[in-house]
Amino acid sequence: MAEIEISQVCKDYHGGVRAVHGVDISINDGEFIVLVGPSGCGKSTLLRMVAGLEEISEGTVKIGGRVVNNVDPADRDIAMVFQNYALYPHMTVYENLAYGLKNRKTPQAEIDARVQEAARMLELQPYLERKPRALSGGQRQRVAMGRAIVRKPAAFLFDEPLSNLDAKLRVSMRGEIKRLQKRLGTTSLYVTHDQLEAMTLADRLVVLNGGRIEQIGAPLDVYHTPASTFVASFIGSPAMNLVAGELHGDRLAVGPEIMTLKSFAPASGAVTVGMRAEDFRIAGPEEKGLAFRVDYVEELGSQRLVHGFVGDQAMTAAFPPDLPVPLEFSLTIAPEKLHFFSVETGKRIEQQHARFNSEQQAAAIPSFAG
């Protein structure tokens, strides 16, 4: 087991295309880090540079304190799990698990002990004499994980290992990977484009966008205090609602209405205001609110997602599944649940000194119309 240090790492391709821009990540011994972002953001390229499958254009990668930029993948003491399993079809499960150890001239008794231990952990013992074609997708993925486990590497690298599985199997496999990593305590770097997968697995998230880091933090910290509009819209399902507003000292204008804030003047002028769907509630008869027109409803069983419009701006609100929802109503949100972002940069405007007047605490944000 070992820590991984990624320092000012860049990746350039022919034609002057830079895919990864000066990335810095410190991964602690035994930590589970998830690289998450949309397709093309550089997450798999970064993982492959750590693995030695891609050349590093600039910067350094250290594994266990050793610079590995020019070290062959086989000598980096890492094990990879890919989305396509990469099993040998002509070999049995036992032979697939044992193959890497045999190549390293490991004694047969130790090979057998490690294979049996991994098979027991992953519930593969009944399938050791089967070939991959006789296994389900989930069983094949467990074999791929087992092949990494028997190596007892310093670090695991996962490249979207669950993307080929159906939705139900992905959920169960997420749990298996999380339990296994905690049991083994092996430093892990995991790549996915699925923000739900990232949230449930990670000790810390690294959110990538265009080859740059947008934010690093614990999943709930990233969710509750997104560093940018990109993170706010990418992390969370449904995405955070982002609308236009203006700040003037201690006043926030949203549409034609004004809210008075106390000790809050981090910016002056146009801002982007963020609101999570679950922070809305339906306004009472005496409350002001956002005039909301329903477009359609998603019934998810555990909650009801109501999609609609406030003025001409799309908005989504989340309610309990048994709450009646009329076609038109008013939304309210507690002012302390608001998020503010710069219109120019998309970066979060810090609110650590923000306090709302007591009379505003129960008030809704007024109409966006106009």
Name the features.
6-stranded mixed β-sheet, alpha+beta, 6-stranded antiparallel β-sheet, 370 residues, disordered C terminus, 23% helix
Q: Note the main sheet.
A: 6 strands, mixed
**Radius of gyration from the alpha-carbon trace, in angstroms:** 25 Å
Shape: globular
Tell how many strands the DSSP assignment holds: 21
Distance between the termini: 59 Å
Order of helices and strands: EEEHEEEHHHEHEHEEHHEEEEEEEEEEE
Number of helices: 8
Class computed from helices, strands and strand pairing:
alpha+beta
How much helix, percentage-wise, in residues? 10-25%
Low-pLDDT residue spans: 352-370
Quaternary form: single chain
Strand order across the largest sheet: 6-7-8-3-9-10
Mean pLDDT rating: 87
Strand content: 25-35%
Outline the structure in words.
The protein is of the alpha+beta class and 370 residues long. A six-stranded mixed beta sheet has the order 6-7-8-3-9-10, with helices on both faces. It has a six-stranded antiparallel beta sheet with strand order 20-14-11-12-13-21. The protein has a five-stranded antiparallel beta sheet with strand order 15-19-16-17-18, with no helix packed on it. The chain is globular, with a radius of gyration of 25 Å. The chain has helices at residues 43-51, 93-103, 108-121, 137-151, 167-184, 195-201, 219-224, 229-234, and strands spanning 4-13, 17-27, 32-36, 58-63, 66-67, 78-82, 155-159, 187-192, 204-209, 212-217, 241-248, 251-254, 257-262, 269-275, 280-282, 290-299, 304-310, 313-319, 328-333, 339-342, 355-356. The longest helix has 18 residues, at 167-184. It is built from eight helices and 21 strands. It starts with a strand and ends in a 14-residue tail after the last strand. A hairpin with a 2-residue loop joins strand 12 (251-254) and strand 13. Helix 2 (93-103) runs parallel beside helix 4.
